[in-house]
Design brief:
mainly alpha
């Protein structure tokens, strides 16, 4: 009579897996809460609070230019009021007050740019890569405009003795620089509109949108994924987009690995 021995390969392999998991030092520590991992994997949409900051800064900028024009006309161009202005400004000249206020406005723009960069970096890490690239230059353009205006103001102040032959020429040049700096206001307004549209649409991360477009192709809206180099495209932009996408996928895979490890440890301890 032939005796059939029961297969032991499966039991041995399962025992080896269980033993390896038991000996794994990662399972000895406290488990991560599944709710925390699920909330980290399935992140809720977070609105960007930079919309109101851009609007407020635009209002401050317009008010600054208007007050500067009034101060320059009343205290510098109209000579009959210079004595009163000297008393009100405590001996300071009008253009000195304007330049000091301009420096304060420039510092506000620097703080705004850092504030916006912090929130946009967070949106980039959450997978909104196209929005980050679309607003990257727009949020920094006001600072560049005012920095160029600061250089122009320094040139006007340094050449003020040479411009003394023409009456109030330095004042007119200073007001002209302030007028050109108003070009930053449309940039701030356009930025605020894009952020408001982003918050209202509440889009999914770019990876999810590409997966949805691959899963449900449409002839009316053909998808165009930028995962490779094509003729006419910028190689640096393609490499940067791929690097952002890889960084986001690495973070997402890390969260998924922690979730799988937590579930495996819970099944073993039950």
């Amino acid at each position: 009579m032939d005796s059939k021995e029961p297969p032991t390969h499966t039991n041995n392999s399962s025992m080896e897996i269980t033993q390896s998991l038991d000996e794994d030092p990662l399972t000895d520590g406290p488990l991560i809460s599944p709710d925390i991992l699920d909330s980290a994997i399935k992140k809720e949409f977070q609105k960007l609070p930079t919309f109101w900051a851009a609007l407020l800064l635009s209002i401050i900028h317009v008010a600054f230019v208007c007050l500067s024009v009034v101060l320059a006309v009343y205290c510098s161009i109209l000579q009959s009021n210079r004595t009163k202005c000297s008393d009100y400004l405590r001996g300071l000249q009008s253009h000195t007050v304007i330049v000091f206020a301009k420096v304060c406005l420039w510092l506000l723009l620097i703080a705004f740019e850092r504030f916006v960069q912090r929130h946009h970096s967070g949106a980039r890490s959450r997978g909104y890569l196209r929005f980050y690239r679309a607003t990257r230059n727009l949020k920094s353009l006001p600072v560049f405009i005012h920095s160029a205006g600061n250089a122009a103001v320094l040139m006007v102040l340094s050449t003020q003795p040479l411009l003394a032959g023409v009456k109030n020429l330095s004042v007119y040049l200073l007001l002209g620089v302030l007028g050109l700096e108003l070009l930053s206001v449309p940039c701030l307004l356009l930025y605020s509109v894009r952020v408001q549209n982003f918050n209202r649409e509440r889009p999914e991360p770019d990876v999810n949108q590409e997966e949805r477009s691959h899963g449900y192709p449409s002839n009316a809206h053909p998808h165009c994924t930028e995962t490779g180099f094509r003729d006419g495209s910028n190689l640096e932009d393609v490499v940067e987009k791929q690097a952002d996408l890889i960084e986001y996928l690495k973070q997402h895979n890390s969260l998924l690995s922690k979730r799988i490890l937590s579930l495996t440890c819970q099944q073993m301890r039950e």
